[in-house]
Every structure is written in C-alpha cells, then in structure tokens.
Amino acid sequence: MLKRNISVKLAPQRWQDNAGDGVFDMILTFEERVFDLVVEDMNNREQRLLKSVLIINMDVKDNHEEAAIGAKLALDLCHKLEAVAGDWEEIIDDLIAAFEKQHKRKLTYYISFY
Fold it and tell me: Which residue positions does the secretion signal occupy (predicted)?
C-alpha cells in the first residue's frame, strides 16, 4: 500500500491541512475516526455563510483490494450526488438508503454548515 500511496500523493493528507482550501460541497472520509474529527471541526467553526456541506463516511480497510473497491464505490456515490445537483438535501436519506442497499455498505453522513 505504501508504494502505491507514494506514487499517488506526496504525504498523508490531513483534514486540518486542507480545511482552509475553500468551501466544499461534500467531504468524503474512509475511516470513522476521520469522519468524527471532520464533524467535530465543522461544528467548532463559526457558521458565517450558512452554506451546507455533506459529510459522508464509507469505511474502507487499508489494503489494496478494499481500496480498489472503495474507490469505485466512492465514484459511484459521487455520480449519484452529481445527478441530483443542488437538490441533494431533499433526497439524501433516500439516496443513501438506496446506495447502502445496492452495495451492501453502511454509510454514515452528517450535514454541517460553513
């Protein structure tokens, strides 16, 4: 995994290092601990813009096979969210439930605000 990661990115990415990059529409994590940290950070910020952000966790084990499967599932989830464009807040419960049923994967999600 380490060899593959070295070819993909310079160093591990931390939410704290990237959170100031701008306003995100969606934040996708692959470990519950990271999801909890992102949610906590967002809840501790002052909410000035009142712009919603969808935070989703899809637990993926840290091995080649699971990473490949997780990447495909993440892409599918992103495509489903893009298809509903700005109306995701209205249908997110149904979209997540359908995704979980189709892929037999449990997702955790939370809506926060900037």
Answer: none
Q: What is residue 53's DSSP assignment? A: E
Dist CA 65 CA 43 (whole Å): 34
pLDDT value, residue 101: 98
The pLDDT of residue 11: 59
**Sheet with 52-58, side-by-side order of all strands:** 26-29, 52-58, 107-113
Q: Which residues are registered as beta bridge partners of 79?
A: none
Q: Is the dihedral of CA 86, 19, 46, 111 positive or negative?
A: positive
Residue ranges in the chain whose pLDDT is less than 70: 1-12
- Residues 6+ positions from 2 with CB-CB distance below 8 Å: none
Q: Does domain 23-113 have CATH number 3.40.50.2300?
A: yes
Inter-CA distances, 44 with 37, 55, 67, 73, Å: 11, 15, 31, 30
